[in-house]
Amino acid sequence: MNPTQIKTIPEYLEAMGKVGVLGAGRLGRATDIVMRMFDDQDCFTFLSMSGPMVPGGLRSIVSHLVKEGYIQAIVTSGANIVHDLVEAYGGSHFRVPSSKDDIELREAGMGRIADLFVNEKDFEIFEKGIYRFLDVLPEECLTTLAPSEFLAELGKTVEDNASIVKQCADHNIPVFSPGLMDSMLGFHLYTYSTTKNLALDFVKDLRILGKIVTEQKKTGAIMLGGGLTKHFTMGSTILRGGLDMAVQITLDRPEAGSLSGAPLVEGVSWQKVQTEANFETVIGDATILFPLIILACLNR
CA spacing 20 to 30 A to 103: which of 179, 199, 213, 295? Predict the structure, then answer.
């Protein structure tokens, strides 16, 4: 790669592809696959997110992709939904001062995620916002909605245009969160259910997702991190023989046999990836690599 000839991010990622080997080659090939997902009108593209992708700075990028029609469905941890809504309700994420330890943060009413923190008061505002929404939700909806339908209704009440949940609701993009109860939102749903009859239908979400998958000519997925969101995304496509295109960005390793660290080629044996699919696993931090890939695709 000649550094005197690289002047833009698309040129940089194209050069990575031409290098062709090791991390550079994987990053270049991943960018090419994402470009093909975005260009192929027959490809239904999932974005799955585990880990702190919203606190890590990806909120605006994801919202933009939804708004511009590049993403057709999101599968996410409950935590990313919570942090999206914390910001939508006026809260913020801050960098942790290096002088602070966790005991000091706890005493100051702050919760830490790696090198950033959120104030407890912002979670209190988030809790009040969720309770306000639940109080005006029609009673029949409290026991009939799937989680994706619940999030769509919630998104309609959000005013922050940078919110992922709002943009998905505005553009009829389903948000699936198979681990929704494992989050502060899930905890508030539990506490609310102690006073009123509330129960989301998670099986109904699988029926909704299954119908979506079986109606597609092609499916693609961009998977940030692993775990439950990766498995839910890939597992749903078994209904049509697996994904046609896929990119995974993860920091997990394969030696322990976990799904998070498993290379995408392993999905071929499970019928989660088509035998003729285009796919690439990139080892690295998604908060760094995903923006680079998207900037290259949008500014080529």
Answer: 179
